[in-house]
Amino acid sequence: MKIGIIGGTGKMGTFFRGVFGQAGWEVMVSGRQTPLTAKDLAEQCGVIMVSVPIRETVGVIRSLAPLLSEDQLFCDLTSLKTGPVQAMLTSRAQVVGFHPMFGPTVKGLAGQTIIATPARCDQDSLERILSVFRSQGARVTISTPEEHDRIMAVVQGLTHFMTLCVAETMRRVGMSPEDTLAFMSPVYQIEMGLVGRLLSQDPLLYADILELNPHVPPVLEACESALSSIRGIIEDGDTCAFEKVFRENARNFGDYCQKAARESDMLIAAMVRR
Q1: Pairing relationship of beta strands 94-100 and 113-120 according to DSSP bridges
Q2: Domain coordinates of the chain in residue numbers?
Q3: Are 129 and 97 in contact (CB under 8 A)?
Q4: pLDDT tens across 79-115, in order?
Q5: Which CATH number does 2-143 carry?
Q6: How many CA atoms within 13 Å lie on the side-chain side of 175?
Q7: What's the pLDDT tens digit per position in 143-186?
């Protein structure tokens, strides 16, 4: 098989260049400064994969769509799926959207999750590309573009929003992680690690994830309402109400509470042993 990766010189494109190369595929790439263009890849490759920044993805897809035929497979690696998949469906090609649930710094696919949103794709073509991921240890979750974006509003939108809020709150109260080092518990250290990890990356990526997913605003509205409600309970000193909301959320999380406790205990033990 021959795959052409548009944006194949970027970090994620380079990662998947290695993935398909390891699987024995012939890989061609185009980027802003490569001799090959996106059009060249569209003319020469059976599979076309778009790996560019979120804000550029739909535009790149639309420019390529008229060039593709029914016997080609069109896919992308974007954190949002509805818009890119709809754009790919304007082509004559088979279409499947992908979202790798990891960054390009991972050492390989083993233990990682990739979301696949097949929209117009025969089973043989789909299995051919999914087998590349599975053979290298990835877990593949099948979804629709709409379900993906709705769930990502929580998985990415809510969590990134709250992480950024922690950083912004600390800045506003005049406190840095260094000020708290001598007071850190392992759990707090994990929390600070997540904040620092986010802040070490490209802000435009997180802006796109939060601003371009139409399912994010209602989730953030619910978050603001929850913050206001819980703050009111705390300020009123209403311990009964606090216990009630605490237990309601524990019931909503169900058995995951015990699983999370076990896993975090293992992580804390590993940190303490360092």
Answers
A1: antiparallel
A2: 2-143, 147-237
A3: no
A4: 999 999 999 999 999 999 999 999 999 999 999 999 9
A5: 3.40.50.720
A6: 11
A7: 999 999 999 999 999 999 999 999 999 999 999 999 999 999 99
Encoding tokens for residue 261? 């406790």
Confidence at residue 251, expressed as pLDDT on a 0 to 100 scale: 98
d(CA 160, CA 198): 8
Q: Residue 6 is inside which H or E element, if any?
A: strand 2-6
Q: The tokens of 139 are what?
A: 């877990």
- The rounded distance, in Å, linking the Cα atoms of 120 and 136 is 25
Residue 130, CA distances (Å) to 20, 51, 101, 191, 196 in order: 11, 17, 15, 34, 33
How many CA atoms lie within 13 Å of 210's alpha carbon, on the beta-carbon side?
14
Report which secondary-structure segment, H or E, holds 45: none
pTM beyond 0.85: the answer is yes
Helix axes 203-211, 216-236, angle to 10 degrees: 90
For residue 7, give Cα distances in angstroms to 14, 58, 97, 116, 171: 8, 13, 16, 19, 36
